[in-house]
Design a protein that fits this description.
The protein is α+β, with helices and mostly antiparallel strands and 469 residues long. It contains 16 helices and 19 strands. Helices cover 49% and strands 20% of the residues.
C-alpha cells in the first residue's frame, strides 16, 4: 500500500515538473519579450529603465529555476507557478499597452497625402444626381489660373465628357446657379466654402453631386533641433525645454500673404485650404521666424483630450453664456472646471465679447494653458497616460519624429519639470476686403498691426533664448 502511495506521489510530482518545465520556457519568452519592448519603446528615463530591468531579472532568477529544474520542493514550484502566471498576465498587458503606444506615435507622426477637393454643385431640386447625369453637359466654372484648378477640370473630364464655360466672378457663379442661369458649377472647396459663408441658404439650396480630388504638392518643412537640449517652437505654441512656454494667438481673420500664390492677399483661416505647408509658410513670412514643427488638431481633439485627462481648471476673464452651439454653457468670472464639451464651447465663443475674436483667442490660450498644466503634471502622466492615445490618435497630426517625441516624454518623466506658461495675442484693426480665396466677395479681415507682431516675436525669441523665465 505504501509503495502504491509513493508511486502515485512520484507520478504527480513528475507530472507537475513536466508542466512547470514547459511553462517556465513560456514564462522566459514572455519575460524577454516584455523587457525587449520596454527597451525598444525608449520612454523610461535610464535610471527607471535600469530599475525595471533589474526587478524583472531578479524575479526571473527566483521563479524560472524553481519551475525548470526538478530538485525543488513541490510547494516552491507551485508558488513559483502562481507568481509566473500573475507576472505573465502583467507582462502580456504591458506588451499590448506598449505596442499600442508605439502604434499611436506611428499614427500621429505619419503625414498622409494631402488632397484638395473640387465639387460639381447643382441645385437641390434639380434632376442632377451624379457624374453620369452631367455627361455631354456644359459646366460653369471659375476663371482661375491655378494649376490645381486645371488638373481638377481634366480629372473630371476623364471621368465624364463635359464642356466648360468660365466666369470671372465668384458671386456671379453662385447667383447663376441659384437663378438657373447655370445648371451646374465646378468650384474648389475653398471657393465653395466662401460662397456658403457669404450667400445665405446656398448650402441648403444646393447639393454636391460629384467630388474630384487633386493631390497637393507637399514638402518636408521640419526645422529639426535636438528637442531635449535646444529650444524649439511648434505652431501654434512655442516651447522651451528649459521650462517656459510662450503661447501666441493670431486672429483667424488676420491678413496674410500666400507664398505659393505669388504672395496674394488672404486671411489666416483660409491658408489651411491650401495645406498645412501654406499655413506655416504664411505665418513664417508674417513673423519673420522659422517654425520648427506643427501640430494639426480639430474640435474633436479638444473635447476628447480634455475628457481623457479628467477635465481642466481655468480662470475666465468674464462671466458669459455661449451662443449658437446647440447647448448653452454658462461660465463664471474666475475659476471654472471644464469637461471636454465645455472647454470647446469656452474656446469657440466670441459673440459674448465686445472685442469678439480677440477675446476668443485669449480664451483659446486659457484652455491650452489648462490642458498643458494638467497633461504635464506627474499624476496625470502616470494615471491618464493610457487613455490619452485612444482619445486623440485619430484627430492629431504632428510632423515631429517619433524618436523626438519619445525623447520629450522621457525628459518629462525624468525630472517632472514645472512649466511657466506665458500668453500673448497679436492684434490688429478689423476691416473688410476682397481676398484670394473669396473671389469678388468682401469678407472680414484684420489688418496687420506690425508693432503687435514684432512685440510677439520679441517675446518668443526671449523665451527661446532663455531670457524670459
Amino acid at each position: 500500500m505504501r509503495s502504491d502511495k509513493h508511486h502515485k506521489k512520484n507520478k504527480e510530482s513528475s507530472s507537475l515538473h513536466k508542466f512547470t518545465k514547459v511553462w517556465s520556457i513560456l514564462y522566459l519568452l514572455v519575460t524577454i519579450a516584455f523587457a525587449g519592448i520596454l527597451v525598444y519603446m525608449d520612454l523610461l528615463p535610464f535610471k527607471y529603465l535600469c530599475m525595471a530591468i533589474g526587478i524583472i531579472a531578479v524575479l526571473l532568477l527566483i521563479i524560472f529555476p524553481a519551475m525548470f529544474f526538478r530538485n525543488f520542493k513541490k510547494s516552491r514550484k507551485i508558488i513559483s507557478l502562481v507568481l509566473s502566471i500573475l507576472l505573465m498576465l502583467a507582462y502580456g498587458a504591458g506588451i499590448v499597452y506598449m505596442s499600442g503606444t508605439i502604434d499611436f506615435f506611428s499614427k500621429i507622426t505619419k503625414i498622409g497625402v494631402q488632397m484638395e477637393e473640387y465639387y460639381v454643385v447643382a441645385r437641390k431640386d434639380s434632376d442632377y444626381k451624379d457624374e453620369n447625369s452631367i455627361k455631354g453637359k456644359t459646366v460653369q466654372t471659375y476663371l482661375s489660373n491655378e494649376l490645381n484648378y486645371s488638373e481638377a477640370k481634366n480629372k473630371l473630364k476623364e471621368v465624364v465628357d463635359v464642356k466648360y464655360e468660365m466666369t470671372e466672378s465668384l458671386s456671379e457663379l453662385a447667383d447663376g446657379l441659384i437663378d438657373q442661369s447655370y445648371d451646374t458649377i465646378f468650384v474648389s472647396e475653398a471657393h465653395y466654402t466662401t460662397i456658403c459663408s457669404e450667400k445665405k441658404n446656398f448650402r441648403s439650396d444646393t447639393k454636391i453631386i460629384y467630388t474630384v480630388e487633386v493631390e497637393k504638392e507637399t514638402k518636408d518643412i521640419v526645422k529639426d533641433v535636438n528637442v531635449t537640449e535646444e529650444p524649439f517652437n511648434v505652431y501654434i505654441s512655442g516651447l522651451d525645454t528649459e521650462g517656459s512656454i510662450s503661447t501666441v494667438s493670431i486672429p483667424r481673420d488676420y491678413e496674410i500673404k500666400l507664398p505659393s500664390k505669388q504672395n496674394v492677399l488672404d486671411k489666416l483661416t483660409h491658408t489651411g485650404l491650401y495645406g498645412i505647408e501654406e499655413t506655416i509658410a504664411s505665418v513664417e513670412q508674417l513673423m519673420g521666424i522659422d517654425i520648427n514643427y506643427y501640430v494639426k488638431v480639430n474640435y474633436t481633439t479638444v473635447t476628447k483630450m480634455v475628457d481623457a485627462i479628467g477635465g481642466i481648471d481655468i480662470n475666465s476673464d468674464y462671466a458669459f453664456t455661449t451662443h449658437g452651439m446647440g447647448v448653452y454653457y454658462a461660465f463664471n468670472e474666475g475659476e471654472n472646471h471644464l469637461d471636454g464639451s465645455m472647454a470647446l464651447a469656452f474656446a469657440r465663443e466670441r459673440k459674448s465679447f465686445s472685442d469678439g475674436d480677440f477675446q476668443r483667442n485669449k480664451n483659446q490660450q486659457i484652455v491650452l494653458e489648462g490642458v498643458l498644466k494638467k497633461a504635464l503634471s506627474s499624476t496625470t502622466i502616470l494615471t491618464k497616460y493610457t487613455s490619452l492615445p485612444n482619445a486623440v490618435e485619430d484627430n492629431v497630426e504632428i510632423n515631429m519624429s517619433q524618436k523626438d517625441m519619445q525623447k520629450l516624454i522621457k525628459m518629462q518623466m525624468d525630472g517632472m519639470p514645472s512649466w511657466n506658461i506665458q500668453k500673448q495675442s497679436i492684434t490688429g484693426t478689423p476691416d473688410s476686403k476682397i481676398c484670394f480665396s473669396t473671389g469678388d466677395y468682401y469678407v472680414a479681415v484684420v489688418d496687420v498691426d506690425q508693432k503687435s507682431v514684432i512685440s510677439a516675436v520679441d517675446k518668443i525669441v526671449a523665451v527661446m533664448e532663455g531670457e524670459k523665465k
